[in-house]
């Protein structure tokens, strides 16, 4: 999608600190990190929000979640713990409408979230 920030990062048109990429996914550091590790995992294909996922996307979402666990492990956070978050639409504070899985770790993360 031409006016989508994360499509532009996927395409390499906007720089980002890429931590992982493969055929389906790109992961990069959040520009406004909320924890020592704050990575965003996005599909290369544009999907605006969780509400737009189809059954045919199940494998893609599975890859995103398993990649989150792998990235947390690489950062040394598997044992102490980490958090994964998909924000969806206004009340959850979604600001970029290309789905992304936040992966946060390296500090105590309070619950419930704000
Ligand atoms: P959300 O509020 O769930 O839509 O999350 C969007 C996230 O994208 C926020 O945590 C932002 O800090 C992050 N973000 C916005 N612009 C960029 C960028 N150019 N590079 C990396 N992360 C970004
Ligand atoms: Zn996009």
Keywords:
binds zinc ion; binds adenosine monophosphate; 2 helices; alpha+beta; 114 residues; five-stranded antiparallel β-sheet; single chain
Question: Can you tell me about this structure?
Answer:
By secondary structure, this protein is an alpha+beta fold. Helix content is 21%, strand content 22%. It has helices at residues 5-11, 58-74, and strands at residues 18-21, 25-29, 37-43, 82-85, 101-105. The protein has a 5-stranded antiparallel β-sheet with strand order 1-2-3-5-4, covered by helices on one side. β2 (25-29) and β3 (37-43) form a beta hairpin. It is globular and about 40 Å long. The N and C termini lie far apart (31 Å). Adenosine monophosphate is lined by residues 5, 14, 16, 28, 30-32, 40, 87, 93-96.
């Amino acid at each position: 999608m031409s006016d989508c920030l994360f499509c532009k990062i996927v395409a390499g048109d906007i720089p980002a600190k890429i931590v992982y990429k493969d055929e389906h996914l790109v992961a990069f550091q959040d520009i406004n990190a909320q924890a020592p590790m704050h990575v965003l995992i996005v599909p290369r294909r544009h999907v605006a929000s969780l509400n737009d996922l189809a059954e045919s996307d199940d494998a893609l979402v599975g890859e995103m979640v398993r990649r989150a666990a792998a990235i947390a492990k690489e950062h040394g956070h598997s044992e102490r713990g980490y958090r994964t978050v998909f924000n969806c639409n206004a009340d959850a504070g979604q600001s970029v409408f290309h789905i992304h899985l936040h992966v946060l770790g390296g500090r105590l993360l309070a619950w419930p979230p704000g």
